[in-house]
Specification:
globular, 5-stranded mixed beta sheet, alpha+beta, two-stranded antiparallel ribbon, about 400 residues, single chain
Length: about 400
C-alpha cells in the first residue's frame, strides 16, 4: 500500500465523500426491492403454473403467426388506421387472414393475443367457456360514448341489464310495428331523389338509427326537431366509428382520441338525455292510459337515475346502428381454447390470463372449407340441401350463448 501522504489523503476524502445512508432511506430501498422481488417471483410462479396447466390440457403453441415488416408490427397498425379511415377495415383484415390458419397468434406493440375464425373456439368463447372471458379494456373504451349499459358491463350488472331489456324485447314482438313503414318510405323517397352512384350505407345506417329510436322512445327523432335529428345522426356516426377503433386498440385505447370525438360523444349524450326526458314527459301527459307501457317507461321504472336510462338507450342504439363483425374478448383466467395449437392447428391452445382473443364472424362466414368454393356468391340454395346442415357455430347472425342478441326474434 502506498505511503504517499497525498494518496492516503485522497483515499480518505473519497471514502468520507459519501454521506452515510440513513435508516429510513435504507428501509425504503429494502421495501422497494422486496416488492419487486415478490412481484417477479409471483409472476414467474404463475407463468409456470399456467404452463403446467397447458401441458395437462394437451395444449400446443400456435404455429400460424401474423407476419409484419416493422418492429412491434407498426406497419400493420399504420395500414389498419388508414383502412379504418377509408372504411375498408374488413377488406384489410382479409388480406392478412387469407395467409393465416383459422386461429393464429398476433403480436402487436409487444403484446400477444390470438385471432380466430374457428367455430369451435367461437363456441367456447361465447358459450361453453363463457365464464372464462370478459370485456376487459373494451368496456372502458366504449364508455366514453355509451356510458354504463349492457354492452359495457360484465357479471351481475350485465345479468341485471340483460334481464330488464329481455322482458322489453319479448313484449315488443307482439307490438304493432306499422310505424316502421314511415321510415322505409322515407328511405325510398331519398333513393328516388338521388342520381348517379349512390352510397347506400349511410342511408341504411340512418334507417336503423331512426327505427331503433322509434322503437325505444315511441316517436322518431324528427318529432323533436329536424335539425337535431341530422345533428344527432352525424354525431352518432362519428362517435361510433372512433369507438370501434378504440376497442380494437385494446389496452391502448386511450391513445386514440381524434379531434371531434369528445364533442360528438357529448352531443349524443346530451340529446339522448333530452329525448328520454321528453318521451317520458309526453307519455305522462298522454290521454292514452292503456295498461301497455312503453319501452322507455319500463327502463325508467327500473332505473331512478335518468342518466342510467340514457346510457341503456345509447347501448341499444349502438346495437341497432352497427352489428359487430369482429369482437375482442379477454381471458378472465388462464384457460384453453379447443383448437388452434400445433402444426395442424387442431390441438388445444393455451390462453393465459389477460390475453386478448378476437373472433371474426365476418371472416368465419366466408371460409371456403365451411361454405364451399364460392362463399362470396349469392347462392341461397346452398342452405336447402345437406351442404350446410351441420354448420352450427359457423353461422352466427345474432352472436350466441348468454350474450345472444336480444333482438334476434325481431330479425
Amino acid at each position: 500500500m502506498s505511503t504517499d501522504p497525498s494518496v492516503q489523503r485522497d483515499v480518505v476524502e473519497f471514502a468520507t465523500s459519501f454521506s452515510p445512508i440513513r435508516p429510513s432511506t435504507f428501509a425504503v430501498l429494502l421495501l422497494i426491492t422486496s416488492i419487486c422481488t415478490y412481484a417477479y417471483t409471483r409472476k414467474a410462479l404463475k407463468y409456470r403454473r399456467d404452463t403446467e396447466f397447458g401441458k395437462r390440457s394437451g395444449c400446443k403453441p400456435a404455429t400460424s403467426k401474423l407476419i409484419y415488416k416493422w418492429p412491434l408490427a407498426l406497419d400493420v397498425l399504420k395500414d389498419g388506421f388508414k383502412a379504418g379511415r377509408e372504411k375498408k377495415l374488413l377488406a384489410f383484415f382479409t388480406q392478412y387472414f387469407k395467409h393465416l390458419s383459422p386461429t393464429a397468434e398476433v403480436s402487436i406493440l409487444g403484446g400477444i393475443g390470438y385471432v380466430t375464425q374457428d367455430p369451435e373456439n367461437v363456441e367456447a368463447i361465447l358459450s361453453t367457456q363463457f365464464q372464462d372471458f370478459h370485456l376487459g379494456p373494451r368496456s372502458v373504451a366504449m364508455r366514453a360514448m355509451i356510458g354504463d349499459g349492457i354492452f359495457t358491463q360484465d357479471g351481475a350488472a350485465w345479468k341485471h341489464s340483460r334481464e330488464v331489456l329481455r322482458r322489453q324485447f319479448v313484449r315488443m314482438q307482439y307490438q304493432n310495428l306499422e310505424g316502421f313503414r314511415d321510415h322505409l318510405e322515407n328511405l325510398i323517397e331519398r333513393l328516388k331523389s338521388s342520381s348517379g352512384i349512390t352510397d347506400l350505407q349511410p342511408m341504411f345506417y340512418r334507417l336503423t338509427l331512426d327505427t331503433t329510436i322509434a322503437m325505444i322512445l315511441g316517436q322518431p327523432v324528427e318529432s323533436f326537431e329536424h335539425e337535431i335529428g341530422d345533428l344527432f345522426s352525424k354525431a352518432f356516426d362519428r362517435a361510433s366509428l372512433v369507438t370501434g377503433t378504440r376497442v380494437r386498440l385494446g389496452d391502448l385505447f386511450f391513445l386514440y382520441r381524434p379531434k371531434g370525438f369528445v364533442k360528438a360523444c357529448e352531443t349524443i349524450k346530451t340529446y339522448t338525455y333530452q329525448f328520454v326526458s321528453d318521451a317520458l314527459q309526453r307519455e305522462a301527459e298522454s290521454l292514452d292510459k292503456s295498461e301497455t307501457t312503453s319501452f322507455i317507461a319500463e327502463l325508467r321504472r327500473d332505473n331512478q337515475d335518468l342518466q342510467l336510462v340514457r346510457d341503456q338507450v345509447l347501448n341499444i342504439l349502438i346495437a341497432g346502428r352497427d352489428t359487430t363483425a369482429a369482437t375482442l374478448s379477454y381471458a378472465l383466467k388462464t384457460t384453453a381454447l379447443p383448437v388452434g395449437g400445433g402444426p395442424d392447428g387442431r390441438s388445444p391452445l393455451l390462453v393465459r390470463e389477460g390475453m386478448p382473443v378476437a373472433y371474426s364472424v365476418y371472416h368465419m362466414q366466408r371460409r371456403e372449407d365451411l361454405y364451399g368454393p364460392d362463399p362470396l356468391a349469392f347462392r341461397p340454395e346452398r342452405w336447402d340441401g345437406p351442404e350446410l346442415a351441420n354448420i352450427g357455430w359457423g353461422y352466427l347472425p345474432f352472436n350466441g350463448g348468454p350474450r345472444l342478441c336480444l333482438g334476434s326474434k325481431s330479425g
